[in-house]
Amino acid sequence: MYESIVGALPGVDIDSSTAIGIQVLAFEAGVLVVAALYGLWAGVVVGTAAVAVAAIGSALMLTYARRIRELDAPESYRRLLFGSNVEVVLGVLAFVAVVTHLFVYDPRVATDPLVTALLGDEPPVLATYLTLLVLWDVVYRIGTSWWAAVAAVWRAYTFEFDPARSRAFARADGLNLAFAAVQLVFVPFVLDRPVLLVVLLGHVLAVAAATALSVGLTLADARDATVSA
């Protein structure tokens, strides 16, 4: 999805590094401007962390996609990973879940809801808009990481490759784990928010488990192929 957004802008032809740089500058400028306008300096640190996670996620995601394409992956796996748009559906579901938690569940059970702590008792419209925009940019990557992990397990179970390609696919799968682990940057901000903490850690552990399975199956096939040869 990220690739399609960058590539679809009319009259825009920039490389991925430039696109990520523009993304960082635009979002970080927005965070600082909103903080200055409304005095919401308490949210600058977490906002900057979110911008950094989004940027690092973009870089890892694009590197992962490039490596999979360079490995000349089986067409059915490529269609599953890049053409199904399942990651968009998963991203939307994750985003709706987070918004529901922040604006409905958390205010009912917490004495100091996270939205209030970051945006005040009466959140300004512009600050809320920017918060949701950055939040989407972070959360939809959860769906992307889930789908990449599931697709990798299917690939590892379905196909066998020579040892060199198997190791290359395993290294690519490791990028997806790094992609998920980057979001652990948010742990210090949700230590007193048990639901968000459990969901965040659960997300990373789930991707780690799926990645371990895909890497294990891939390397096991490589060892079997070597022994047979």
From TrEMBL:
Keyword Transmembrane attributed: yes
Native species: Halorubellus litoreus
The protein's name in its UniProt record: CAAX protease self-immunity
Annotated keywords: Membrane, Transmembrane, Transmembrane helix
TM ranges: 40-65, 86-105, 125-154, 174-191, 197-220
Keyword set includes Iron: no
Pfam families: DUF7530 (PF24374)
Tree of life domain: Archaea
